[in-house]
UniProtKB/TrEMBL annotation:
<dbReference type="GO" id="GO:0016872">
    <property type="term" value="F:intramolecular lyase activity"/>
</dbReference>
<protein>
    <recommendedName>
        <fullName>Chalcone isomerase domain-containing protein</fullName>
    </recommendedName>
</protein>
<dbReference type="InterPro" id="IPR016089">
    <property type="entry name" value="Chalcone_isomerase_bundle_sf"/>
</dbReference>
<dbReference type="InterPro" id="IPR016088">
    <property type="entry name" value="Chalcone_isomerase_3-sand"/>
</dbReference>
<comment type="similarity">
    <text>Belongs to the chalcone isomerase family.</text>
</comment>
<dbReference type="InterPro" id="IPR036298">
    <property type="entry name" value="Chalcone_isomerase_sf"/>
</dbReference>
Length: 323
């Protein structure tokens, strides 16, 4: 984590240490260790709701079976988010929720961890898992694809490419975030507020952005849907979906509840800057997303990233491991 963000988050880490067992039933021995040792870094959350406070990335997540290789219903009526354990290779938004049913391809997955550095990785805890999706057809025809088509290998390491991708107005994207443990709501709201305000300034926006304030308001304790709460925390397994549309519209859902429907190009950029920007939650996931973008070639079958967090079989927005 950059030195600037490390310094800004020290007070937050001290708060988190004091929470002890509140942060997700970490287990007595591990909690005691965390109280004695300073964390090497506290991550940026991935976007409202399934907030988190981690520091680096690995992976994991899942869904159910019933709708066919056509798509993925993020909120199956017969299944709760906590039952899921992998991400689908394809994500199809329901026509009943969005103007028309459209499908997006999986670009990258990752995990947010929190705790001591890599040398003590056994002491780190998983805060949330995430997945990034893009509309494949739009990506193939996009201005970003045309701009970098002649040198894709160089583009994957070019910061300007990711800024263009994050800010693209002709590629719709979705972000899925799932909490890996119960997360205190007040702590999450405060951290999201700091992070998104910082990110929106980074992409050229302002902290008084009306859409940003509306989005943050949705994550106050009194506005969190009861079905995703457990005491004063957001439940482990809660699935958040953020969808960025080309006209600057951002829609956020938690399981089957709509949290926000706002319009702000800069807010859309700020949310995806968390994963595709200069200081991403996971540099590995960012690079994989860039590589996946250039694999979306017309006339070729797209193969999603190979990862333990990706479902081997997808049916609707469901998945099931195959023996």
């Amino acid at each position: 984590m950059p030195a600037e963000e490390e310094q800004q988050q020290r007070p937050f880490r001290r708060k988190l240490h004091g929470l002890g067992k509140r942060v997700g039933n970490l287990g007595g021995g591990v909690v005691r260790r965390f109280r004695k040792r300073p964390c090497s870094s506290v991550a940026e959350l991935a976007g409202p709701v399934q907030p988190s406070v981690g520091t680096s990335g690995r992976e994991e997540s899942r869904f159910d079976l019933l709708s066919s290789l056509r798509g993925f219903n993020p909120f199956p009526a017969t299944q709760t988010a906590s039952a899921l354990s992998c991400f689908p290779a394809r994500f199809c938004q329901q026509a009943s929720i969005y103007p028309a049913q459209t499908c997006q391809e999986l670009m990258a997955v990752g995990t947010r961890l929190w705790g001591p550095g890599a040398a003590q990785s056994l002491l780190r805890v998983k805060i949330y898992e995430f997945a990034i999706f893009m509309d494949g057809q739009q990506a193939r025809q996009s201005k970003v694809k045309n701009k970098y088509a002649n040198n894709t290998a160089k583009a994957v390491g070019d910061a300007n490419f990711y800024r263009d991708l994050r800010s693209s107005k002709d590629i719709e994207m979705s972000l899925m975030v799932r909490a890996s443990r119960n997360l205190p709501i007040k702590l999450l709201h405060a951290e999201y507020e700091k992070i998104l305000k910082r990110r929106i300034q980074r992409v050229g926006g302002v902290v008084q952005d009306t859409a940003l304030l509306q989005l943050l308001d949705c994550f106050r304790e009194e506005n969190i849907p009861p079905s995703i709460k457990e005491g004063d925390s957001v439940k482990k397994g809660t699935l958040l979906v953020f969808r960025k549309e080309g006209n600057g519209r951002l829609r956020a859902r938690a399981n089957d509840h709509e949290l926000a429907d706002v319009s702000s190009t800069k807010l859309c950029q700020a949310v995806f800057d968390l994963y595709l920007g200069d200081q991403p939650v996971s540099r590995k996931a960012k690079r994989i997303a860039g590589e996946s973008f250039f694999k979306l070639d017309a006339g070729q079958q797209y193969e999603p990233p190979q990862d333990a967090l990706v479902c081997p079989v997808v049916v609707g927005n469901a998945c099931m491991a195959v023996a």
